[in-house]
Amino acid sequence: MRTRNSGMQSLVNNLIKGAFVVGVIGFGLTACTNPSTPAGEEGYVYEKPRVFGEGGYQGTMIGPANYGMSLLRNEVVNIDMRPNTYTETFRILANDDLNIKFDFHAVIAIQSGSVRTVVEQYGAENWYKRFVRETFRTYVRDTVQKYDSGELKTNREKIAQEVTLRLQDYLSTTPFKLANVVVGNINYPDIVANAVEKKLAAQQLLAEKETQKEIARKDAEIRVEEAKGIAQAQKIINATLTANYLQHEAINAQIKMAESPNHTTVYIPVGNNGVPLVKGAN
Predict the structure, then answer these.
(1) What is the full DSSP assignment across the chain?
(2) Which CATH code, of 3.20.20.70, 3.30.479.30, 3.40.50.150, 1.10.3720.10, is assigned to 84-188?
């Protein structure tokens, strides 16, 4: 009877030990953490206490990297440190009270090694929204409202430069580094766009009229030169048409007509030089 009880006790003890081992293994598999950070980002590793302890900052890592297995409940906040483009869309009244729509693009990177500062002081992943966005928008509005609507496109580089200098100065003591600011598409109201199209069409028509005017002027010059040529020719001819020359030409014409078998010609001698009037008869 004792042997039987001893066997049962041994079985129970083995079951308890097995359960304990499985529990330890299960706890180890589920409790251990291994935070990781991808390439181009930096990770802020912190502990979330399970029951006891204060938790908090544990360290940082530059991706790609793993923090390593730990029984602590470690987690990571990854921050992209690479240059990224942040776009803001505006509808702003220009200096002449015309509502203009356009985009501004700011290219901003984060200084390497500053992930702890970004997380603890600037809102982690929300750093742009919490610390940069509204200041950026204010600088854009202040600068654009100095110009009339018609001056914006021709001064877009000047506007971008002014906003860049102000934003760089604002970010100079922070981990955020502004690369540049670019003015995107500028869209005027339809009424302005239509007016611009009409103006361009009128300018094109005016250019065509100027071209036609130039062609007409050149044509007139050609006609003047032709008239001068004809007048000069007539002057030369008039100077050479003497009475003897005309009589010589008339005699030659009479000889040619007399030799022609196709018709009969009657000569009537008239005129001071005996130059006949010529009349054809069929």
Answers:
(1) -HHHHHHHHHHHHHHHHHHHHHHHHHHHHHH-B--EE-TTEEEEEEE--SSSS--EEEEEEESSEE---BSS-EEEEEEE-S-EEEEEEEEEE-TTS-EEEEEEEEEEEE-TT-HHHHHHHH-GGGHIIIIIHHHHHHHHHHHHTTS-GGGTTTTHHHHHHHHHHHHHHHHTTSSEEEEEEEEEEEE--HHHHHHHHHHHHHHHHHHHHHHHHHHHHHHHHHHHHHHHHHHHHHHHHHHH--HHHHHHHHHHHHHHHHT-SS-EEEEE--STT-PPEEEEE-
(2) 3.30.479.30
